[in-house]
Write a structure and sequence with these properties.
Layout (H helix, E strand, L loop, with lengths): L1 H52 L2 H15 L2 H38 L5 H26 L3 H26 L4 H20 L11 H7 L1 H31 L2 H17 L1 H17 L4 H28 L1 H8 L8 H26 L3 H54 L5 H24 L3 H25 L1 H11 L1
Length: 483
């Protein structure tokens, strides 16, 4: 678990660095108008791709992992064969959909027909993207983590090297060719790193694939619907803030959201790569599910703890590094949100149980109710207390969701988070409250000093608990002796 988290945490950091470099050069080479065109073309392609792929590339990870857990090579091969047929179908569906809609997409998006041909050319990227994401899902389901990490990193690096010259020489005219070339690179890399997977040759017709992949598609569709529910709730919050407080508050809110979710979210993104397939492998054994859940939830808190303390104690410094002093009003929002992140770690880990069990309806209703809770609490919080109220409401909403999901897991599967998780949560919550209080009372830069002390305490505690689980000291001493 820890190795997988470290591996993909590094991958996420690398990809963020690449995206920062790309964004900087793209802004220089394309200007504001070119960046806007690129953003619109990418967002439309992503939207149509997610709709036509129906989440199958994500839900298939569960089916492939579950089949792999049985040790039945024929079952694994058949599951993957069915999945590949469905992916080809959804890829072609996405391509045809964009071609048919291209005149309307150009008018709706840009107000004219000038970009109809651009959308037709980009339709091919939906097919290429479906196939490459399918290959990555295959690696994910079989827990081939190193090839998966290499495909992601090489894709980011090669994409950067190829895209910058195209933007430099061709400007806005290089946008569509760059997006197409990037899709080809992703396809080639996904094929290269998945080519060594040996499968039995099984003949499955398209109709058989539809019949056998029905549950896979059902889960994928409900996951897609859940994603749109979350996006719609987020849109309503932004719209309410814009109408009530103005676009400046929307910008501050988005900056705070990016800091607490994009960067802290690296931990969750890194963990899910290993956690979901491993949970799916033991989906028929409730005791093993409980063990995997508690291991993952404890690890999530132990890794997050030091990160949250340092972020809580150095928020103004982080804002200066990532943004400008104009964004300092969001400090209080970020500091309150940190408490919500602690509770969201537990809810996040429990939420994957419904996916691993294939309980798609329960997963959808869980996501829908969670989105409503966050929507209502955020609107209420902002209305009553502005940005700081929004941070408080986020934490309250996540506490409600934590207890709701806990109840749901116990009611449905008799699964609970254990004593060790509750102990770690209590200790980290206490240290965060102390850091928050000191930052509030002393202010900055004095809070940097007290925060540094608390960070060392939290780091020491996390390492102590990790050593109990991973035997870190023995590993380090063995490496020293070898050298």
């Amino acid at each position: 678990m820890f190795k997988a988290t470290s591996l993909f945490g590094g991958v996420q950091v690398f990809n963020i660095l690449i995206s920062v470099i790309r964004a900087k050069f793209v802004a220089v080479f394309l200007g504001t108008a070119g960046v806007g065109i690129l953003s619109l073309l990418q967002s439309i392609s992503t939207l149509i791709g997610s709709l036509t792929q129906m989440g199958i590339n994500v839900s298939a990870v569960r089916d492939i992992s579950a089949a792999s857990g049985t040790g039945d090579h024929y079952k694994v091969s058949r599951t993957i064969t069915v999945f590949r047929k469905l992916i080809w179908f959804t890829g072609l569906l996405g391509t045809v959909t964009m071609i048919v809609l291209s005149p309307w997409l150009s008018r709706w998006t840009f107000g004219n027909s000038d970009y109809t041909l651009a959308f037709i050319w980009l339709s091919g990227t939906l097919f290429l993207g479906a196939i490459s994401s399918g290959q990555i899902s295959l690696l994910h389901g079989l827990q081939k983590l190193k090839p998966m990490a290499k495909a992601s990193m090489w894709g980011s690096a090669i994409g950067l090297v190829i895209s910058l010259p195209l933007y430099y020489f061709f400007g806005e005219k290089g946008i569509v060719p760059t997006l197409i070339v990037s899709s080809v690179i992703a396809l080639v890399l996904s094929w290269f790193f998945s080519r060594k997977i040996k499968l039995e040759k099984i003949k499955v017709t398209l109709m058989e694939s539809f019949a056998e992949g029905k549950d896979m598609a059902k889960m994928g569709i409900l996951m897609t619907m859940s994603g749109f529910t979350n996006m719609f709730a987020s849109y309503l919050v932004n719209a309410f803030i814009s109408r009530t407080g103005g676009v400046a508050d929307v910008g501050l809110f988005q900056a705070g959201w990016n800091i607490t979710n994009k960067y802290v979210g690296l931990v969750f993104t890194a963990m899910v790569t290993d956690y979901f397939p491993r949970l799916s492998k033991v989906s028929d054994d409730l005791k093993k599910i409980k063990d995997v859940l508690n291991q993952q939830a404890e690890l999530a808190l132990l890794i997050l703890g030091p990160i949250l303390i340092i972020l809580l104690s150095t928020t103004p410094f982080v804002i200066h590094i990532l943004y400008t002093k104009d964004f300092l009003p969001v400090v209080a929002y970020i500091q309150w949100v940190i408490f919500g992140v602690l509770f969201s770690a537990g809810a996040w880990c429990m939420g994957f149980i419904f996916m691993a069990k294939g309980d798609s309806k329960l997963y959808f209703w869980k996501e829908l109710i969670s989105s409503i809770v966050i929507l209502v609490s955020n609107i209420t919080g902002y209305y009553l207390g502005g940005l700081e109220g929004l941070g408080i409401s986020y934490t309250i909403g996540n506490i409600i969701i934590f207890f709701f999901v806990s109840w749901l897991c116990f009611y449905k599967y008799k699964i609970t988070l254990g004593f060790e998780f509750r102990k770690i949560l209590s200790i980290e919550l206490a240290l965060c409250i102390i850091a928050f209080t000191l930052a509030y009372k002393l202010g900055f830069p004095y809070a940097y000093f007290t925060g540094g002390i608390l960070f060392l305490i939290m780091l020491g505690y996390s390492l102590f608990e990790l050593d109990k689980r991973l035997n870190i000291k023995q590993f380090v001493f063995s490496k020293i002796k070898k050298n």
